[in-house]
């Protein structure tokens, strides 16, 4: 992946940021700038760790070091802010009301069932069981990506654009829209080291409408990061299981 790829990810969501600025009564540009800065810093931490550090010498192929560094960076930021801000980030065991949590879980499970059926039909199968794949997919993506996307970045954008839309008694805003799209295109857009531009529109649309949306709703309605972390890792684990059936 080229070093320009994270910048391309930001450029793609610029129209949505511009729309948020135009539609919002008040915009806090400081938090918008912090959002861009944090996202790029985290992206480059993970990318550069792949270039200069790996665990192939002990037989591990996944980006363990990058995810661990991303997690550490996120925790440093979280513990540098106030307790109130940590709760807004979702770094808490407190939840919203039982009815809101129940709604979030049921909505997520509905998307998960669809996701499972869809992938059972289309995913290639018959692969070999790989312990590292399961160990990684059941832990690191949910821990790091939810802390980043549905935690810190959500929080920064909600500070930049005050949420105004009410769903099940919970406030949603432009931050939800931007993060839902950003998460998806960060998995489906890449500029290679040879400067070949890859844009997987199917992956972007599917992740936006199914995975990113469902986990985002779960995060908002549950009120903390525990539920989306578990949900995210459940999606990835199911993907790994389907491929070896």
Question: What attributes characterize this protein structure?
Answer:
245 residues; mainly alpha; two-stranded antiparallel ribbon
| Portion in helices | over 70%
H and E string = HHHHHHHEEHEEHH
Our Rg estimate from Cα atoms comes to 18 Å
Distance between termini?
Answer: 31 Å
- Strands in their spatial order, largest beta sheet: 1-2
- Shape label: globular
Counted beta strands: 4
Q: How would a textbook summarize the main sheet?
A: 2 strands, antiparallel
Number of helices: 10
Strand content: under 5%
Uncertain spans? none
Protein structure class = mainly alpha
Mean pLDDT metric: 94
Give your account of this protein's structure.
It is a single chain. The protein has 245 residues and is mainly alpha-helical. 71% of the residues lie in helices and 5% in strands. It has ten helices and four strands. The strands form two sheets. The chain has a two-stranded antiparallel sheet. A hairpin with a 5-residue loop joins strand 3 (189-191) and strand 4 (197-199). Helix 8 runs antiparallel to helix 9. The chain is globular and about 50 Å long. The two termini are 31 Å apart.
Strands, helices and their partners?
Layout: H1 5-23, H2 29-52, H3 64-78, H4 83-89, H5 98-122, H6 131-137, H7 140-160, E1 165-167, E2 170-172, H8 174-188, E3 189-191, E4 197-199, H9 201-222, H10 226-244
Antiparallel strand pairs: 1-2, 3-4
Helix pairs in contact: 1-8, 2-3, 2-7, 3-7, 5-9, 5-10, 7-8, 7-10, 8-9, 9-10
């Amino acid at each position: 992946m080229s070093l320009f790829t994270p910048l391309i990810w930001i450029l793609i969501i610029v129209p949505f940021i511009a729309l948020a600025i135009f539609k919002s009564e008040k915009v806090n540009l400081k938090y918008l700038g912090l959002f861009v800065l944090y996202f790029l810093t985290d992206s480059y931490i993970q990318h550069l760790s792949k270039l200069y550090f790996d665990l192939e010498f002990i037989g591990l192929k996944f980006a363990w070091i990058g995810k661990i560094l991303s997690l550490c960076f996120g925790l440093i930021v979280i513990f540098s802010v106030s307790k109130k801000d940590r709760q807004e980030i979702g770094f808490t065991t407190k939840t919203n009301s039982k009815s809101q949590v129940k709604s979030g879980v049921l909505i997520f499970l509905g998307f998960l069932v669809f996701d499972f059926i869809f992938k059972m039909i289309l995913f290639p199968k018959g692969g070999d069981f790989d312990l590292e794949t399961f160990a990684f997919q059941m832990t690191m993506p949910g821990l790091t990506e939810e802390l980043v996307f549905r935690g810190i970045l959500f929080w920064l954008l909600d500070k930049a654009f005050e949420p105004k839309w009410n769903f099940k008694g919970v406030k949603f805003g432009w931050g939800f829209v931007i993060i839902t799209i950003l998460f998806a295109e960060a998995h489906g857009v890449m500029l290679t080291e040879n400067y070949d531009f890859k844009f997987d529109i199917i992956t972007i649309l599917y992740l936006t409408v199914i995975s990113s949306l469902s986990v985002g709703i779960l995060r908002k309605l549950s009120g903390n990061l525990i539920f989306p972390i578990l949900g995210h890792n459940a999606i990835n684990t199911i993907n790994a299981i389907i491929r070896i059936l």
